Please model this.
Amino acid sequence: MSFSSFVRMHWAALRALLVLTVITGIAYPLFIWLVAQVPGLHDKAEGSILTANGKPVGSRLIGQLFTDKDGNPLPQYFQSRPSAAGTGYDPTSTSASNLGPESIVDTPADPALLAAGKSASDAGFKPGLLTTVCSRSAAVGQLEGVDGSRPFCTGGGVGAVLSVIGTRDARGNVVHPTRVVSVNEPCQATPAPFLSLYEGVRVECAKYGEDYTIGQIVPIRGAASADPAVPADAVTASGSGLDPNISPAYANIQVGRVAKARHVSPDQIRAVVAQYTSGRTVWFFGEPCVNVLQLNLQLDHKYPVSS
Model:
C-alpha cells in the first residue's frame, strides 16, 4: 500500500469518526434533552420524582420498603410487594429470585451452627419458592388479621412436601410406600410433622444430613382454600424487584391496619386508596394497581401520624 493510499484511507476513517461523534455524541443527546423539556414530558424525563416537604423521597416508577431498621413493617404505611433486588428495592441490584415452580424442597440449616448462635441463613438454610411463599403468606396473614393459609403449605408456614420411599411402578411412581419423610420440617424445629400418616405409613420429620432424593417428592395440597385471603402479589416478588405497585386486593386487606394506626375510619383510607388506583393501560393491558409510594405520601399529608 502506497503512503498516499494509507493517508486517504485513514483521513476517510477520521472524517467518519468526527461526523458520527457530532451526530450520536452531540446532536442526538441534545435533541432528546430538548424533547424532554416539553411540558408533560419533563417530569417523566427527570425520573418521576415525588417530594415531601420540598425534599425528594422516591420515584413513582420504583418501589421501596416501608419498614423500620429491623425490617418490621411500619403499621401506618401500606406495604409493598416483596423484592428480590438486593436487600429489597435496590435499583443497583435489580433481579428476580430465579426460583421456579419446581423449587419446593428447602436446603436445611446445619443444627450445629444454629446451636452455636448462627442465623438460619448463615447456617446454610435456603428456602425453596414454595416455603418462601408459605412463610410470607403466614406473616402477611398475621400482620393484617386475615387467614394466611394457602394450598401446599403447612400450618407452620413451610412447604407441605413429602419424600415417599418405596416400591415404584413402571412410570416411577411409588405404589408401596415403606417410609415417608416431611422434607421441609427438620426434627429439631418441629415437634411433629404436619401429617401423621400417608397411605398408612407414619410420616417422619427430616434429619439433617440424610438424602431423601431417593424418594418420590410429593407436595400435599391440604385443606386450604383455592382462593387464599392473601393475594399472590403479597407473597411473590416481581421480575425486576422494583415494582412500585400492588394489587387492589392486597391494598384492601391492609386498610384496617393502616386506619387503626392513623386513627381514622377504614372508609377514609379506602377513599385515598381509590384515588391512587389505576386501571388497565389502554383498557386491556395489565391489571388494575395501586401506587404504594403515592398512596403513603398522600396519607401522611391527609392523616399524619403524631409522633
